[in-house]
């Protein structure tokens, strides 16, 4: 079986945020060999802003899971950790997003890879740049660093 390179975004804004991220990373190690983990950064909420600040990080790893198996695995971890999906962009004790899976492009109702919003989110691009700035977005054909600098400059205008 082949190993696949994956990038996952982790976030938490409820409970002990740092501990939640560490627990999620430990669970992920069951089926992912983690190669790099970014620094954990504190960020403002995205979308629905009337909620506590988030802690976010990004990790790079390899897995033998196929894309839909990976989705099932991360949802299982979120459920195990007590994630409640009350409304989109609402508060959560843990959020695990699949950002990239090799250079695959998947667009189904339940799974979209690359993550469709990642190029608009500093809280994803900043930690992603820290661990793999030269990775090229398979749809936008720009490196993570290019997407990051583009987003920064668009916010200054």
Automatic annotation (TrEMBL):
Q: Does the keyword Magnesium apply?
A: no
Enzyme Commission code: 2.7.6.3
Q: Which CDD domains match?
A: HPPK
TM ranges are none
The pathway that the record names for this protein is: Cofactor biosynthesis; tetrahydrofolate biosynthesis; 2-amino-4-hydroxy-6-hydroxymethyl-7,8-dihydropteridine diphosphate from 7,8-dihydroneopterin triphosphate: step 4/4
Q: Which catalytic reaction applies to this protein?
A: 6-hydroxymethyl-7,8-dihydropterin + ATP = (7,8-dihydropterin-6-yl)methyl diphosphate + AMP + H(+)
Q: Which GO terms describe its biological process?
A: folic acid biosynthetic process; tetrahydrofolate biosynthetic process
Q: Which GO terms describe its molecular function?
A: 2-amino-4-hydroxy-6-hydroxymethyldihydropteridine diphosphokinase activity; ATP binding; kinase activity
Q: Which UniProt keywords apply?
A: ATP-binding, Folate biosynthesis, Kinase, Nucleotide-binding, Transferase
Q: Does this entry carry the keyword Lyase? A: no
Give one Pfam family, short name only: HPPK
Every 7,8-dihydro-6-hydroxymethylpterin-pyrophosphokinase domain range = 88-99
Q: What class of enzyme is it?
A: transferase
Q: Which NCBIfam families match?
A: folK (TIGR01498)
Task: Supply the name of the protein.
Answer: 2-amino-4-hydroxy-6-hydroxymethyldihydropteridine diphosphokinase
């Amino acid at each position: 079986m082949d190993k696949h390179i994956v990038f996952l975004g982790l976030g938490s804004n409820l409970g002990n945020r740092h501990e939640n991220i560490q627990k999620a990373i430990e669970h992920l190690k069951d089926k992912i060999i983690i190669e790099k983990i970014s620094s954990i950064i504190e960020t403002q909420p995205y979308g629905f802003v009337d909620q506590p600040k988030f802690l976010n990080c990004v990790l790079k790893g390899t897995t033998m899971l196929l894309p839909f198996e990976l989705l099932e695995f991360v949802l299982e971890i979120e459920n195990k950790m007590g994630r409640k999906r009350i409304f989109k962009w609402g508060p959560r004790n843990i959020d695990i997003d699949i950002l990239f899976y090799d250079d695959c492009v998947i667009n189904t109702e339940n799974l979209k890879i690359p993550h469709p919003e990642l190029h608009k989110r500093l809280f994803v691009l900043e930690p992603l740049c820290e661990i793999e700035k030269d990775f090229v977005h398979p749809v936008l054909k720009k490196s993570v660093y290019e997407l990051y600098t583009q987003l920064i400059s668009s916010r200054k205008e």
